[in-house]
Amino acid sequence: xxxxxxxxxxxxxxxxxxxxxxxxxxxxxxxxxxxxxxxxxxxxxxxxxxxxxxxxxxxxxxxxxxxxxxxxxxxxxxxxxxxxxxxxxxxxxxxxxxxxxxxxxxxxxxxxxxxxxxxxxxxxxxxxxxxxxxxxxxxxxxxxxxxxxxxxxxxxxxxxxxxxxxxxxxxxxxxxxxxxxxxxxxxxxxxxxxxxxxxxxxxxxxxxxxxxxxxxxxxxxxxxxxxxxxxxxxxxxxxxxxxxxxxxxxxxxxxxxxxxxxxxxxxxxxxxxxxxxxxxxxxxxxxxxxxxxxxxxxxxxxxxxxxxxxxxxxxxxxxxxxxxxxxxxxxxxxxxxxxxxxxxxxxxxxxxxxxxxxxxxxxxxxxxxxxxxxxxxxxxxxxxxxxxxxxxxxxxxxxxxxxxxxxxxxxxxx
Length: 414
What we know:
Elements: E1 2-7, H1 13-25, E2 29-34, H2 44-51, H3 78-81, E3 88-94, H4 96-104, H5 110-117, E4 122-126, H6 130-134, H7 136-147, E5 151-152, E6 156-159, E7 165-169, H8 173-186, E8 194-200, E9 204-205, E10 211-212, H9 219-230, E11 234-240, E12 251-255, H10 258-268, E13 274-277, E14 284-286, E15 304-306, H11 310-317, E16 323-330, H12 334-345, E17 349-354, E18 366-373, E19 376-384, H13 385-413
Parallel strand pairs: 1-2, 1-3, 3-4, 4-5, 8-11, 8-13, 11-12, 13-16, 16-17
Antiparallel strand pairs: 6-7, 9-10, 14-15, 17-18, 18-19
Helix pairs in contact: 1-2, 1-8, 4-7, 9-13, 10-11
């Protein structure tokens, strides 16, 4: 395995030296690319000694040289070939400035040019002052990168070099190394799969302007779509009531009501080898919605009826070998309710989460929950929705292999 390690200019650059050692301990070959500002904190010689390879520092650097080009230097288009001759690009530490550079597509030095020219998976580990980390511009840039399938290893909290306390510390080198090895191993494990994902909260009309809905933002479903696409799957994303940017490479179908989601999901089902029902479908709809706006009165009585049970229909109509994942958004007895839903709906996996938990679930960037399957369960601690998406896909992929393995054995026995 070959890792490109980009080192940006921040005090956390010294931790990239230990990260290089962790990669080497894991059996990887490491090629380090340093920005000019990174060289102000750690010398290229340090990384050359730890990696065993020449450190790249400039677009104009000659091959087999430690310094800038001279009259006898031999040049190559480094930012093209180096971004192809590896398995993953890791940028640690990633400064606020470099995150902005990457998000906006600038190529003003070797590392940014390589990042723009490569088709490799990209993993960034940010490190910066806590106010810079929390700034809306930085968070918007990070969200842009997430939508482009860039993996983000979020910083830890604690005392920073500036003396402040808060989020912004570079994640520990061993944590970064473990995540990178995990991502590299996943690679394109979903190549050949067609993953159907529902996301967002449906809206059931009351009249011409009002509706019954919920607080779902669609972020979990969109994170699943981005993760599945990054792992090689063809992704069909059906979403309701969300304005999130669609992950690159996904087929996107927008709906509004539960009935529309049902119709669309069943129409696309024959193509799917994996279905993940992450949408929050409203449980009830108005029996006879008004075509005009209802005028205000002291009281208003609405007659409600159940919306379609899409998950149950998906399970019943799926073709053999298609894995179905459902969600159970609960506020109490979360695991018990998830287990009941698994049993009653017939899904292969239920993701049960407590949506009453602060900072998690609906309209949040983080989530936590329990994966419930026939043979047991797995707790997912509070993490980003992209990280949770990866774990859900890991479990769904494992179940798919088991189901298809059993099917093959049954077929060969006939």
